[in-house]
């Protein structure tokens, strides 16, 4: 029979390991209590390339009315003392879309040729801006305004904190570019 020698770790190694494990647990607990789970919602985002847009159902995006509207829209939208410049859209760019922003924060997005907004009913509270009837739909971080009295539906999504300049300017262009028609709830 051979004799096996057992080597046990020294008392110093065991104590050191226990202390390090304890410090790791304390560090994780402290970090989880003081560090946010996600970046702050109001933290500015910097856009350094084309803006990505998810495709949405826009059956009339290729309609001549949308082409005329997009051609008439300005390269800049007013926003207080910081105008919003037109931004490039990442390929494949959805048809009937345009984006403006300042490369910090969420952009203003226009989509033309959408289907009827489900929020549009015979009792919807519409707002008139420069002769265009809009259906505002508020979200957590943005509001989308749907032009509902034209031959095609137009949506303008603006992040919270953007003034009324983009809506006013787009309303004026919609009013000049697209013929009025009855609201179709």
TrEMBL record:
Domain of life: Bacteria
InterPro entries: DUF3515
Keywords noted in UniProt: Membrane, Transmembrane, Transmembrane helix
Bilayer-spanning residue ranges: 12-35
Name under which the protein is recorded: Uncharacterized protein DUF3515
Organism of this sequence: Actinokineospora auranticolor
């Amino acid at each position: 029979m051979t004799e096996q020698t057992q080597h046990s770790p020294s008392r110093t190694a065991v104590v050191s390991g226990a202390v390090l494990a304890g410090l790791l647990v304390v560090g994780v607990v402290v970090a989880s209590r003081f560090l946010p789970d996600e970046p702050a919602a109001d933290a500015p985002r910097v856009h350094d390339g084309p803006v990505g847009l998810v495709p949405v159902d826009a059956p009339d995006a290729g309609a001549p009315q949308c082409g005329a509207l997009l051609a008439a829209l300005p390269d800049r939208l007013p926003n207080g003392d910081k105008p919003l410049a037109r931004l490039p859209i990442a390929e494949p760019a959805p048809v009937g879309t345009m984006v403006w922003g300042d490369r910090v924060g969420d952009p203003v997005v226009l989509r033309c040729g959408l289907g009827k907004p489900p929020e549009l009913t015979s009792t919807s509270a519409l707002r008139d801006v420069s002769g265009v009837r809009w259906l505002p739909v508020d979200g957590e971080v943005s509001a989308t305004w749907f032009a509902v009295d034209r031959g095609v539906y137009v949506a303008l999504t603006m992040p919270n904190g953007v003034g009324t300049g983009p809506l006013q300017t787009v309303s004026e262009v919609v009013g000049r570019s697209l013929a009025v028609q009855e609201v179709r709830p």
